[in-house]
Write a structure and sequence with these properties.
Elements (H helix, E strand, L loop, with lengths): L1 E3 L5 H8 L2 H5 L9 H12 L5 E7 L2 E12 L6 E8 L1 H7 L2 H19 L4 E7 L3 H9 L3 E2 L3 E5 L2 E11 L10
Parallel strand pairs: 4-5
Antiparallel strand pairs: 1-2, 2-3, 3-4, 5-8, 6-8, 7-8
């Protein structure tokens, strides 16, 4: 289940984002400071082109989904997204894969059913083969590889997109 993030969630979001496994697959790998995170939250909470959602499983916060660059006025309603789990707890409990599939499914449903998007975009690091495989299972298509200089290192990023007409619809929830 996804719900709107609240100020009480901000500490969890920072803790999850700074976990080594989440930083390893992020464009920006540095540890985010409390001040940097607070500034992000302040900007994000006031930005109508963003939605930050908390993923809950059995009423327990387990991860976060970020929708950004939401465009509801264009010819196609579009937006970008990203997510991460409380990886440390999920791995310790042996629930990481199950939670990963659920957060992705809930996020895709939210993008098309709640936000009314026509196309959902994102990106994945080229070396993250596991996420690339999961994206394909959800019917995302990959664009052309891009190289970027980030934090003094060159990274290879692959844009992804999913059109409403191509999405896999769940039978039951």
């Amino acid at each position: 289940m996804l719900r709107a993030a609240e100020p009480d969630d901000v500490d969890n979001i920072l803790r999850w984002r700074n976990q080594p496994a989440n930083r390893e697959v992020s464009t920006y790998r540095h540890l985010i400071s409390e001040a940097e995170h607070a500034a992000w939250w302040e900007r994000t909470a006031a930005d109508p082109t963003r939605r930050v959602l908390i993923f809950e499983e059995e009423a327990r916060p387990r991860g976060v989904v970020n929708f950004f660059d939401l465009d509801f006025a264009g010819a196609e309603r579009s937006g970008s997204w990203g997510f991460f789990l409380d990886n440390e707890s999920a791995v310790a409990e042996g629930t990481a894969m199950m939670l990963w599939v659920r957060i992705m499914a809930d996020a895709v449903d939210y993008a098309f059913d709640e936000l009314g998007l026509d196309v959902l975009e994102g990106e994945v690091l080229e070396h993250n083969e596991v996420v690339r495989l999961m994206n394909r299972r959800f019917r995302f298509t990959e664009g052309d590889r891009e190289e970027r200089l980030v934090d003094g290192r060159t990274i290879a990023v692959i844009p992804i997109s999913l059109r409403r007409s191509d999405r896999r619809v769940r039978r039951s929830r």
